[in-house]
Write a structure and sequence with these properties.
It is a single chain. The chain is built from eleven helices and twelve strands. It is α/β, with parallel strands linked by helices and about 350 residues long. Helix 9 runs parallel beside helix 11. It has two domains: about 120 residues, Aspartate Aminotransferase, domain 1; about 220 residues, Aspartate Aminotransferase, domain 2, CATH 3.40.640.10. The structure holds pyridoxal-5'-phosphate (PLP). The site of pyridoxal-5'-phosphate has 13 residues, from helix 4.
Length: about 350
């Protein structure tokens, strides 16, 4: 607290990211990073950019990252997406922040699920956007009928976080048709692990913005690249806000690395399939230990044990060098969100849980 702060700063409750421990030997299953390295082509592209003594770093990057926008449009060519329909940013968190400002700040409150990505209310506070949360069903599903109220926009992740539950494309299309007066932002950070992307709907629905990240399914959380796809009108709003804030959100290394990642379909497909296989194995193993496990379309699972307190389990796992995410929030305080790690990491988790549950 300081009298020098702008008034809005006093009212902020900033997002708290999952811990990034300094101890390298920990089994880190708390922030949904990919256990596999990114495409080797990413490393080669970045090395290429740094060749010639890094001379290019002297120069500003392309403010519009056209090469990357074109690579993304090509990747989604089957849906008829053009380069001008792609917006890129410094991680999808930045893309989302700009979308809140550019598209979701109206008189009426915006809507999002009561259990969802906890960054959304943080952006609302920052931009002074009114919001109303819409409860998920008992089994944590989004019910599109519940969004039939006057609103200034709608946002949700699909699959949802931290539940991993997927809303089918048909339901999203129904929502888009019923909410033609509002922008609907679908945050598809995890869609590659089990969902069909709403990018397929973009050219039929002027009110749809789909947001993606390279942090999860392309193993590039450290590079900070995200993007949005929508009709030109929505993209222009994002560009206007971006160019009122930071003209160069992506540096040269991020641009060439991300271009290489988007082009390596083979690496993407094999790592994504490996994560999906490990998820199903881990799910069976946890069910066998007596956990209830929500069906997940993401690279994490959301679990609870009927006889063991979630906070205590998380603390005990941590003592054994395994970190998972526990949210002290209404309705989910007895759940743990566990990132799908490598098979070795998943085996360590199961081993530790077997010992913990037996001890009782
Ligand atoms: C991880 C995540 C993001 C942010 O991803 P970055 O691109 O790393 O900023 C956005 N939305 C949801 C729901 C996420 O889980």
């Amino acid at each position: 607290m300081s009298r020098y702060w702008s008034p809005v700063v006093h009212r902020l409750t900033p997002y708290v990211p999952g811990e990034q421990p300094k101890l390298p030997q920990l089994v880190k299953l708390n922030t949904n990073e990919n256990p596999y390295p990114p495409s080797p082509r990413v490393v080669a592209a970045i090395a290429g950019e740094l060749a010639a003594d890094g001379g290019l770093l002297r120069l500003y990057p392309d403010p519009n990252a056209d090469q990357l926008r074109a690579a993304i449009a090509t990747r989604y060519g089957e849906f008829g997406i053009g380069t001008e329909q792609v917006f890129v940013g410094n991680g999808s968190d930045e893309v989302l922040a700009l979308a809140f400002m550019a598209l979701l700040k109206h008189e009426l409150p915006i809507l999002f699920p009561d259990i969802t990505y906890s960054f959304y209310p943080v952006y609302c506070a920052l931009y002074e956007i009114a919001c109303v949360t819409v409860p998920l069903s008992e089994d944590f599903q989004i019910r599109v009928d519940d969004y039939d109220v006057a609103n200034g926009g709608i946002i949700f992740p699909n699959p949802n976080a931290p539940t991993g539950c997927l809303l089918p494309l048909a339901a999203i299309e129904q929502l888009l048709l019923r909410q033609q007066q509002s922008v609907v932002v679908v945050d598809e950070a995890y869609v590659d692990f089990g969902g069909a992307s709403a990018i397929a709907l973009v050219n039929r629905h002027a009110n749809l913005l789909v947001v993606h990240t390279l942090s999860k399914s392309r193993s590039l959380a450290g590079l900070r690249v995200g993007y949005a796809i929508g009709q030109r009108d929505l993209i222009e709003a994002l560009e206007r806000v971006k160019n009122s804030f930071n003209s160069y959100p992506l540096d040269r290394l991020a641009i060439v690395g991300a271009v290489a990642a988007m082009a390596d379909e083979e690496h993407f497909e094999s790592t994504r399939q490996a994560v999906i296989r490990s998820r199903e194995k881990l799910r069976s193993a946890l069910l066998a230990l007596g956990f209830s496990v929500l069906p997940s379309a993401a690279n994490f699972i959301f679990v609870r044990h009927p006889q063991h307190d979630a906070g205590e389990l998380a603390a005990r796992l941590r003592q054994r060098g395994i970190i998972v995410r526990h949210f002290l929030l209404p309705r989910i305080e007895q759940y743990l969100r566990i990132t799908i790690g490598s098979d070795t990491q998943c085996a360590s988790l199961i081993q530790a849980l077997q010992e913990l549950l037996a001890k009782r």
